Amino acid sequence: MPISAFPRVSLTHLPTPLEPLERLSNYLGGPEIYIKRDDCTGLATGGNKARKLEYLMADALRQGADTVVTAGAVQSNHVRQTAAAASRLGLTCHALLEQEVPCDEPSYTDSANVLLNSLFDCQVEYCAAGADLPARLRARARELRSQGHKPYLIPVGGSNAVGALGYVRCAAELMAQCLERDVRMTRVVHASGSGGTQAGLVAGFRDLGANTEVIGISVSADRVTQRRKVRRLANELWDLMGLEKTVPAAAIQVHARYVGEGYGIPTDAMREAMLLCARLEGILLDPVYSGKAMAGLLDLVERGILNAGDTVVFLHTGGTSGLFAYDWYFNAR
User: Fold this and answer.
1) Do 201 and 192 contact (CB within 8 A), yes or no?
2) In terms of CATH architecture, what is 3-47+160-331?
3) Is 218 a catalytic residue?
4) Of the residues 76, 220, 290, 321, which is catalytic?
5) pLDDT at 333 over 70
6) d(CA 47, CA 37)
7) 311 Cα distance to chain centroid
8) The pLDDT of residue 230
9) CATH assignment of 49-158, given 3.40.50.2300, 3.40.50.1100, 3.10.129.10, 3.10.20.30?
10) pTM over the 0.70 mark
11) CA distances from 327 to 112, 145, 206, 274, 332 (A)
12) Where are the domains of the chain?
């Protein structure tokens, strides 16, 4: 089934820019590097979740929902964009925020994405680290139904087959931009968390018959766990699109040595990558996702895995608003 057959609401500024990182490329002396600016999708400061929400919100409206229910970490970019999309479409948003990152700094607990959630009137409930979020989401949905609402559940990160359609579409958009500019893209590098972005890109490129490699830099899980998660999502997406066969395991590439002590916990390599991009290219990354993904890209170049024969596209997944939750980390160094 073609991507155009699935219902979609417009929430984004597309296509997002594809820009050369000339100064960074010269500094590294390795591959030619471009950046796909999905931090510029336009919904509530931008980010990759907006592409997923175009399909998830369309499905919610199709089902007659009046409320969306989702979850994420305290500084979740996904929750912030879901709350914004709900406001735009006249829906209510309820969110569970897991206190996954051990941080009690006021800027983390009260500012950045937390502040934006409140501006969008998102109804927030906090839960302890390690909570069974899917079960808590189902319980919240049952409670809302008992109150006469029609809730629509959106998983963490918007990462199910419906949400991943957004990155099937992104793969086609990126291919068209590369063809138009004669950019011979060989690899795409990006932050891989809940898995939907990577699953969508892998399925999208395979559907187009492209041999572009998609390299996910894990920001939370170990390599085996992350590969399993992404492949499951890719196969669910493959089925949704009505395509034959399954996505082979070799198509799911994950590097997980850049997670550090855990999700949302800063690393020195992340900080160095963020400063390098800021000072060479004037581009802001975020500490949780794109900063660690860029740290991974830099290390892959240093180790020769990405080399002068490559043209690499770094997918900036957004999250820049979350940078302001980490002033305590950057100011202390």
Assistant:
1) no
2) 3-Layer(aba) Sandwich (3.40)
3) no
4) 76
5) no
6) 9
7) 22
8) 98
9) 3.40.50.1100
10) yes
11) 10, 40, 41, 13, 8
12) 3-47+160-331, 49-158
